[in-house]
Amino acid sequence: MPKTVLITGSTSGIGLAAAKSFAAKGYNIVFNGLEENGADIAAQVAKEFDIDYFFSPANLLHPEAIREMADEALTKFGSIEVAVNNAGIQYVAPLEDFPDDKWNDIIGVILTGAYHVTKAVWPGMKAKKFGRVINLASAHGLVASAYKSAYVSAKHGLIGFTKTLALEGAAFGITVNAVCPGYVHTPIIERQIPDQMKTHQMTREEVIDKIMLKEHAIKAFIPADAVAETILFLADSAAAATITGVALPIDAGWTAH
Ligand code: NAD
Q1: How far is the CA of 250 from the centre of ligand 1 (A)?
Q2: 253's torsion region: left (phi>0), alpha (psi -120 to 50) or beta?
Q3: Domains, the chain, ranges and CATH?
Q4: 66, 69, 89, 188, best to mutate for ligand 1 pocket (most atoms within 8 Å of CB)
């Protein structure tokens, strides 16, 4: 029986790369995301890897939509062994200009969304005495950058959530970990380049070199596949069975200094 993984935000970027890594291992996949062509993206991956899947366009800002997604997935597959809380959004502005709705949405998707998704899959994992929860935090879950108050707060919060659930899940065979990438060149990064150009009065190249890769000791973006394979390692390897409650940097040396 293949295991089932639910990955939020899996129709783009890191989540999509993770979906492909799990698909290559034969997992059933619950895809989720707000991309207009999300259903097509999910169908393509399922076809390429010959796996069973389900796509939900649930907006993580709506807890009832999250519960419906989890319920439908449980009805279809019987169990969800792995949950990857990956969906995220970003907004870059100084505090005094930070729009309140952006604050609420960022905390809502990254932190409260992960709370509701995990809560929906948790009873099944406990009953099965097996579960793997991987939260996409960020180097910004460990250190801050100016003008990202909501994102840095949400990611720090997500690491706190990770540690708390590692303790609650331990007696039930559930591990809960966070991964903390540096800059990965995905649409979320592409979208923030114009904001950064405006905020810092810089060209595109200057934003990439002087802001994004500035803190990477290795001066390169992190490949999305590298994050995906690390997620798979935490979810699927025997070696990771006693790794829980960690916030693992994949950050080209950013948080080493
Ligand atoms: P992305 O923009 O390519 O993907 C984000 C995904 O989240 C998309 O599928 C989007 O539809 C989904 N999403 C956003 N809001 C949603 C909502 N309300 N409901 C449901 N889905 C929603 O970005 P990415 O770079 O792949 O980011 C994935 C995760 O990795 C995010 O949590 C991000 O913060 C984190 N991260 C990214 C980087 C990076 O450099 N790209 C670095 C560290 C951490």
Answers
A1: 16
A2: left
A3: 4-182+223-249 (3.40.50.720)
A4: 188
| Strand ranges inside the chain, DSSP E | 4-7, 28-32, 53-56, 82-85, 131-136, 174-181, 247-250
Whats the size of the chain, residue-wise?
257
Q: Which atom of ligand 1 is nearest to the CA of 221?
A: 40
Q: Ligand 1 centroid to 126 CA: how many Å?
A: 27
Sort strands 28-32 and 4-7 into parallel, antiparallel or unpaired: parallel
Q: How far is the CA of 159 from the centre of ligand 1 (A)?
A: 16
Closest CA to 181 of 149, 148, 229: 229
User: pLDDT tens, 123-174?
Assistant: 999 999 999 999 999 999 999 999 999 999 999 999 999 999 999 999 999 9
For residue 152, which amino acid is it?
Answer: V
Task: Kindly list the protein residues whose Cβ atom lies closer than 6 A to any atom of ligand 1.
Answer: 8-9, 11-15, 32-35, 59-61, 86-89, 109-110, 136, 138, 181, 183-184, 186-189
Nearest CA to ligand 1 atom 23: 188
7-49 pLDDT, tens per residue? 999 999 999 999 999 999 999 999 999 999 999 999 999 999 9
Cβ atoms of residues 59 and 65 within 8 Å: yes
Write the pLDDT tens digit of every residue in 204-231.
999 999 999 999 999 999 999 999 999 9
Residue 199 clears pLDDT 90, i.e. is over it: no
Amino acid identity at 145 = S
